[in-house]
Amino acid sequence: MRMLVALVLLTLGGLSQAAIKTQEIPYRSTDGTQLIGYYAYDDALQGPRPGIVVVHEWWGLNDYAKRRARDLAALGYSALAIDMYGQGKHTEHPADAMAFMQAALKDSAAASARFNAGLELLRQQPQTDPQKLAAIGYCFGGKIVLDAARQGLPLAGVVSFHGALATATPATPGSVKAKILVEHGAQDSMVTADNVTTFKAEMDKAGADYRFVSLEGAKHGFSNPDADRLSHGEHGGPDIGYNKAADERSWADMQAFFKKLFG
């Protein structure tokens, strides 16, 4: 009997996993950069559904960003983990990650073009409802989605997980169209208290619809199970750390946020 139950559970688990389809899709930004997106959706669902862009941490388009696209697909969304560095490159070396990030942010217009190219690719997928779009981002990616909101891009909402809050081009009154959810680690040493104060003042002045959640005991990178390993890697690492409670709370907050946005 135990063997039969185990076989049934394995079969059901296999069927569940088989419903999530993934594929790598090459695309190009208007700045000429060749990019590689990772697309995920549940093919057991019928018809178009809300589309969510996933923007990676400073490490690049790694397995963690791809996993989050699959997680969103399992929730019933059309999800695309986009590539902000080109050729899908990623690293576990902090110095390389810093160099990749700085290069991507050096030209703000190019960074915007890369995000827009990914958003357009998601919009084009047959599983995506082009009228229902949102974005989530982690660390570097958090900054990218917040900047997209600041620019008034056609997004229903954006969610930043332990994202950088500072910007060279603050929102202006009326410019922010998307609703915003910020999930921030209260012990994040990489995002200062001044950064938090300035961000909130910016959003208030712009009249943005935003919610700022401060998660007690959480450091930068709190949502990534690899954060502890990466913080003590052979190359040395930043002050980051995984926090299971903060990870689960922030993901639940995101689900409630999207349910309110999209029903």
Automatic annotation (TrEMBL):
Source taxonomy: Bacteria, Pseudomonadati, Pseudomonadota, Gammaproteobacteria, Pseudomonadales
Signal peptide positions on this chain: 1-18
PANTHER family in UniProt: DIENELACTONE HYDROLASE DOMAIN-CONTAINING PROTEIN (PTHR22946:SF0), DIENELACTONE HYDROLASE DOMAIN-CONTAINING PROTEIN-RELATED (PTHR22946)
Biological source species: Pseudomonas protegens
Cited Pfam families: DLH
Domain Dienelactone hydrolase: 45-261
Protein's UniProt keywords contain Signal: yes
Gene3D superfamilies, per database record: alpha/beta hydrolase (3.40.50.1820)
UniProt KW Signal keyword: yes
GO molecular function, one term: hydrolase activity
Record's protein name: Dienelactone hydrolase family protein
UniProt keywords, alphabetically: Hydrolase, Signal
